[in-house]
Amino acid sequence: MFPAIFLEFYAFKRNTFLHYSHWLKNFAYNYLKMIGKYRDNRNPNFEYLTLAPVKGIQFAYFFSLFGVFILNLSPLSCMASGLDSIPKFRAELIVQPNLQRDYLFDNGLDKEGTRLFFRRIRPRFFYQPSERWTFFLQLGLSPGDRDLGLDSYDDQLFFPRMLFDLMASYKISESAEITIGQTKLPFSRQRPTPFANVFMFDRSIVNSHYGHDFDLGLFGSIDLNSIDLPIVLSGALTSGNGRNIRFASLQPALTMRADIFPLTNFSADDYRTEADWMRLRDWRLRLGVGYHYNPNLKREGGQTGDLLFEDGIDRQLNAFALDVMAKYSGFTLMFDFISRYSNDLLSFDPNPGSSAVKYIREGKGAMGQVNYAIDEYWAGGIEFAVSRATADLRNGTLSNDVLVPTIREFSLIGYYKFEEPEIQFQGGFTLIRKDYEHSLPTEERLQLVLQATIIIN
Fold first, then answer.
1. pTM for the full model?
2. Residues 276 and 402 in one domain
3. Which domain holds residue 10?
């Protein structure tokens, strides 16, 4: 709501911003026109792009958000003033191509296929008009993000999936900040960490299965180091339904997290990376604890997964996270644990004659990881992770149509990074084993991966 109001006000008062964002407007308009999912409404003062499936709901096109940024910071004077001055503006593009070859262990090693795809294409825009205000926009343009995100059962998602972050932050003091908009929940270690700083191919299966992702609402954080307590507290009150959801719950979800630094504190960015590039000469330790409560669960994974059937059951979700990171002399040691519980695990289609069923991702998982930075360019690491659903989902007690395997992964990776241009290369393999506690056979596969992360700014 706030970003839309912000845009409408500026579009009404300063029509000249269209001059600066004219090519962005055309890109957004032509893109939605190309995929056939738009309706164009115009008036003399400003323009909207409205998705056809949404009745009565409009949103000011987010591509013009950074058009407003450009207008207010005056591009030529900003370039002359330098990055350390106010206002600040930064734009970057992160491209992540991935080459993956899969093998299935079935009477030997059988090749399944080779894929070359873009895991991520992320344009990101950062604008700081003053010492206190910060605005951030991030889009996703990879093939998986370039759709409207409409659920196959009921069209409840009204934004394209391409919108990731859209937020405004206000710095109350040197140690406290509040944010309104859509961004990642401060629950577990791997979610708030920017993906370009995640050392392995991607976040662990533990975080993928039981973590909590983007949501829309109010966020806040406070650093207690200002009163000599090595603790950072974070929290959020959000819709509980994930990113780009049309409806909002009257019972907001609660997320809380505490990061504790019992030894010498990390630098501002060092604790966000999974390798000790600085080759620290003293131990650094970070302990993290997170809690999430959703009183009105609407999706299988809380903020992710398919929408549940409207079966009239009130479901709650509780999740707990514990993670540890230690760094010393090039080594980084990490451990993550997440558990999740719900009062009702299955959602059945209420339509007569339908046997469709969806399940809540209840269970727990743990991940251990060791990385070593050889120098400022080369590094390597190993990771082991296990994800284990609750017993009722593993053995089919609740429904024979729901048999969730226990998944184990082992990864070995090598890593190299350039500084100019900023490119990171990752290569290695992952062994995946799925064990079923029913009549289904064990499945084992091998993935060979070569991945690059290219940052253009």
1. 0.78
2. yes
3. 1-73
